[in-house]
Amino acid sequence: QVSLVESGGGSVQSGGSLKLTCVASAYRGHSMGWFRQAPGKEREGVAAIRTSGGDTYYADSVKGRFSISHDSANNTLYLQMNSLKPEDSAMYYCAAGIYVAVLDNANEYSYWGQGTQVTVSS
Q1: Strands (E), the chain
Q2: How far apart are CA 119 and CA 42, in angstroms?
Q3: pLDDT, tens digit, 9 for 90 and up, residues 64-97
Q4: Which of 49, 71, 74, 100 could tie 31 with a disulfide, CB 3.0–4.6 Å?
Q5: Can you tell me the distance from the alpha carbon of 22 to that of 76, in angstroms, rounded to the nearest whole number?
């Protein structure tokens, strides 16, 4: 049974950094990503990666500030978040899919973690 476990969230001040980690168990696909959802807002794709080919996706709002990476040996996904802004505050979810055509399409991801909260204060 596939399991995704996130960690690394927390509270930081504007301009600070956090690194999210997602450990995947029993997962054999090739597309993983990070999504976020703030209260009263729709879930949005933040960053995603094709773990076999290295193609990446970044939301315009995080380009140049966030970096996604994957450690194949440990089947672990990371999201390095720098220059954090209050508008980055949300619950961040790790997602994994088997056949993902569009990296930022949440509907194509079959597996989801429980989420880790990120709060950025001004």
Answers
A1: 3-7, 10-13, 18-25, 31-37, 44-50, 56-58, 66-71, 76-81, 90-97, 111-112, 116-121
A2: 17
A3: 999 999 999 999 999 999 999 999 999 999 999 9
A4: 100
A5: 6
